[in-house]
Design a protein that fits this description.
This protein has helices at 12-23, 35-47, 59-64, 80-90, 107-118, 132-138, 148-161, 179-207, 213-223, 231-240, 265-275, 281-294, 296-305, 320-353, 359-365, 376-386, 397-420, 425-438, 444-455, and strands at 5-8, 28-31, 53-55, 71-74, 98-101, 123-130, 141-145, 164-165, 168-169. It is an alpha/beta fold and 490 residues long.
């Protein structure tokens, strides 16, 4: 009995992806540290159409069920569990076999594991999977990175099992090992930003416009048939309209504690942005917002001590329909900047690592199955295909035109939020990014002059070539070789 592929690690994501592959006609062998989950998966396969899934009780039995060269997807918790699973399974593997890690893993760990497995001549692929439990079962976005030879071995399977959109499967060869995990990591950073932006719009709707949950649900539902169409807009409408089972007449969202959890990929994205010297203020703001939300007890105390503005609608008049139009425009513009920042991080790392990642393909892979799937991604895909050397997404003429058309509305939203004391770190971060990037001159000249004043860090001039230092006061002495002062700059 030879199975086409194996899946080890049967939490819900693992179960669902195994069932997905089996639904597409592939014979799947499943294994897990806990045999009970193997039995559950086999039973689900029978209940869902007698799907071709084979359960095993030991790692050795699991490997023996696979046709050669063996292809194994592991879906276990990131970190040490991945290392332990690889160590256990690799005892029974042979040269030319492939291990695919489908978890949210730090790309440097993927690079390390690939190198370790090279000694055994076992291929290693890091494959980002996005779409949650539903996507895993019905078609996720799959972002594999590894040896091309290994990718070619798994391509027929993942192409069939990925989400399908107008121009094909939401998967493809991302690049060498590490590239797939990296693209998925940044995908999650964009996801953080998108969710924070929607939350800020909701906050303004609720506390400035005083809209009911039902009204907000209807508005998000309407927006989902416009240029804002996306998975996150869709589920926001559903969430806002969901009645509570415990409180008569209540809505679930009003009883959800305002503390946002996270698994670490957003933090990794911001660390990478800093490492690559890429500005990502919107995503950084969304991460900071989660940190602040976690300090619930502190915020309760602060609410009794720190005062916000006490304004009335007469002092800062807000017209409902105008504000809703402005919120829609601001949300779209900020979302564009979120993608621009994320793609900028991928671009920088790809250049540094010589990965040759196709950014247009990233947008294509994200169009279906994944959490950040959105109509906007078609425009992003087209923009990046038109000019593969585009320095920044927002410099594409079509994208730039859409941003320019929405900036007045964007500014009105931020101004009203500030006036009412509603924190909008992501909307503001995106607007500040846009304003900084579009300006020919920034106050960085003063900052660099200050660095030269206290540290002799030198500066360049606008009117002539070279590196310069000024003796700003009588206390300043010669700093020696000016060119040496540039050493250590990042």
């Amino acid at each position: 009995m030879s199975c086409d592929i194996g899946l080890y690690g049967l939490a819900v994501m693992g179960q669902n992806f195994a069932l997905n592959m089996a639904s597409h006609g592939f014979k799947v062998c499943v294994g897990n540290r806990s045999p009970a989950k193997v039995d559950l998966t086999v039973q689900r396969a029978k209940d869902e159409g007698d799907l071709p899934i084979v359960g095993t009780k030991s790692p050795e039995e699991f490997v023996k069920q696979l046709s050669k060269p063996r292809k194994i997807i592991i879906l276990v918790m990131a970190g040490k569990p991945v290392d332990q699973t690889i160590a256990t399974l690799s005892e029974y593997l042979e040269e030319g076999d492939v291990i695919i890690d489908g978890g949210n893993e730090w790309y440097q760990n993927t690079l390390r594991r690939s190198k370790e497995l090279e000694a055994k001549k076992i291929h290693f692929v890091g494959m980002g999977i996005s779409g949650g439990e539903e996507g895993a079962r019905n078609g996720p976005s799959l972002m594999p990175g590894g040896p091309k030879e290994a990718y070619d071995m798994i391509e027929p399977i993942i192409t069939k099992c990925a989400a399908q959109v107008n121009d094909g499967a939401c998967t493809g060869y991302v690049g060498p090992v590490g590239a797939g995990n990296y693209v998925k990591m940044v995908h999650n950073g964009i996801e953080y930003g998108d969710m924070q932006l929607i939350g800020e719009v909701y906050d303004i709707m609720k506390h400035v416009l005083k809209l009911s949950n039902e009204e907000m649900a209807n508005i998000f539902s309407e927006w989902n048939s416009t240029e804002l169409q996306s998975y996150l807009i869709e589920i926001t409408s559903t969430i806002l309209g969901k009645k509570d089972e415990f409180v008569d007449g209540g809505y679930v969202v009003d009883y959800v504690l305002d503390k946002t959890g996270m698994k670490g990929t957003g933090r990794w994205t911001i660390q990478e942005a800093a490492e690559r010297s890429v500005a990502a203020p919107l995503m950084a703001a969304s991460l900071d917002a989660r940190y602040i939300s976690a300090r619930k007890d502190e915020r309760i105390k602060a609410s009794e001590i720190l005062k916000g503005p006490e304004v009335t609608s007469a002092e800062i008049p807000v017209h409902k329909m105008q504000m809703l139009d402005d919120l829609k425009a601001a949300l779209y513009a900020a979302k564009v900047c979120s993608y621009a920042q994320g793609l900028g991080i991928i671009k920088s790392c790809s250049e540094d690592m010589d990965w040759n990642i196709n950014l247009s393909d990233c947008a294509r892979m994200w169009k279906g199955g994944c959490i950040i799937r959105a109509a906007l991604l078609q425009k992003i895909q087209d923009a990046l295909a038109r000019d593969k050397n585009l320095p920044n997404l927002i410099l594409d003429p079509v994208v730039a035109g859409e941003l320019n058309d929405r900036t007045a509305a964007w500014r009105r939203v931020v101004a009203v939020a500030v006036g009412y004391g509603i924190s909008t770190p992501a909307l503001c971060g995106a607007l500040n990014y846009f304003d900084s990037y579009r300006r020919k001159s920034l106050p960085a000249n003063l900052t660099q002059a200050q660095r030269d004043f206290f540290g002799g860090h030198t500066y360049e001039r606008t009117d002539r070539e070279g590196v310069f230092h000024t003796a700003w006061t009588d206390a300043h002495k010669s700093i020696g070789d000016i060119n040496e002062r540039k050493a250590g700059e990042v």
